């Protein structure tokens, strides 16, 4: 009688759904999304109202180097957040 009850309890434990990600993973994902959004915001602008006038501001250091590096860093943070094991101490 005890063996049957033990098997039923282990079946219930195996069938219960659980989340792979925990709060730490979601916080890291939010940070990564924020860094990506910041990178894309830094890329915006530099246009001209008149299509006949060239605006050299589109080739600024911020748009060419800083913003793409931030976007790539954000994607790196996202990969780290996915691979992060919150139970590891």
Automatic annotation (TrEMBL):
UniProt-recorded name of the protein: DUF3098 domain-containing protein
Residues passing through the membrane, by range: 26-46, 66-84
Organism, as annotated: Mesonia profundi
InterPro entries: DUF3098
Pfam families per the UniProt record, alphabetical: DUF3098
Superkingdom assignment: Bacteria
Annotated keywords: Membrane, Transmembrane, Transmembrane helix
């Amino acid at each position: 009688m005890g063996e049957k009850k033990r098997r039923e309890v282990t079946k219930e434990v195996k069938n219960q759904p659980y989340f792979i990600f925990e709060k730490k993973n979601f916080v890291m994902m939010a940070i990564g999304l924020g860094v990506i959004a910041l990178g894309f915001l830094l890329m915006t602008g530099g246009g001209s109202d008149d299509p006949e006038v060239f605006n050299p501001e589109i080739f600024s250091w911020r748009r060419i180097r800083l913003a793409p590096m931030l976007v790539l860093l954000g994607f790196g943070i996202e990969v780290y957040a996915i691979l992060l094991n919150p139970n590891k101490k």
